[in-house]
Design a protein that fits this description.
Elements: H1 2-24, E1 39-40, E2 45-48, E3 54-56, H2 57-60, E4 66-72, H3 77-89, E5 95-102, H4 106-116, E6 122-126, H5 130-134, E7 142-146, E8 151-157, H6 162-171
Parallel strand pairs: 4-5, 5-6
Antiparallel strand pairs: 1-8, 2-3, 2-6, 4-7, 7-8
């Protein structure tokens, strides 16, 4: 009788565990920040990649145009694959590309730019990742489109591709 009772408790416990784990499969573990409310870009001060001088966000985003902020790092393999597309986008006169170098070694980042070219009109350094976080990013690469009112209107998580470039071109027209 005692063995049957222990077996019943084990079966109930395992059934309970199975139900909990099965229900957990329905929950998505992919985090995607909500930017449906057009978020105003953060006010910040950061180091310039080339001069190492501190710049504030009002100086970087002073013109009344569209901006593309690309969060990248030299150690990021997908950043290498999207780089040629960024080089092509940089030729568009109606938009400025701002690079946000994320948690990177400065020498490695400079070698990356020397090797692949510089599509950015400005590169800012984000040594500890807090600035990227303020923009709503949680990894690299990420690309944000900022409208003339200094609001983030579109966010692309992961490397951009030809389809995304076409979408960007339609937005910035």
């Amino acid at each position: 009788m005692k063995n049957k009772f222990i077996l019943l408790i084990i079966i109930i416990f395992l059934s309970f565990c199975f139900i909990i784990f099965y229900k957990g499969l329905d929950n998505s573990t992919i985090y995607s920040p909500n930017i449906s409310n057009k978020k105003i870009i953060p006010t910040f001060e950061a180091k310039d990649f080339n001069s190492m001088a501190y710049l504030n966000s009002e100086k970087i985003f002073e013109e009344d145009i569209y901006y593309i902020v690309n969060i990248w790092a030299s150690w990021c393999v997908p950043c290498r694959t999207e780089h040629p597309l960024l080089m092509r986008l940089s030729k568009n006169q109606s938009v400025k590309l701002i690079g946000l170098n994320y948690r990177d070694n400065l020498n490695n980042a400079k070698n990356f730019i020397d090797e692949f070219g510089n599509p950015y009109s400005q590169i800012i350094i984000d040594n500890d990742g807090t600035l990227s976080f303020e923009f709503g990013a949680y990894g690299v690469p990420e690309t944000l489109i900022i409208d003339k009112n200094k609001r983030i209107i579109k966010k692309f998580i992961g490397p951009i591709n030809k389809k995304i470039v076409e979408e960007i071109k339609l937005i910035i027209k």
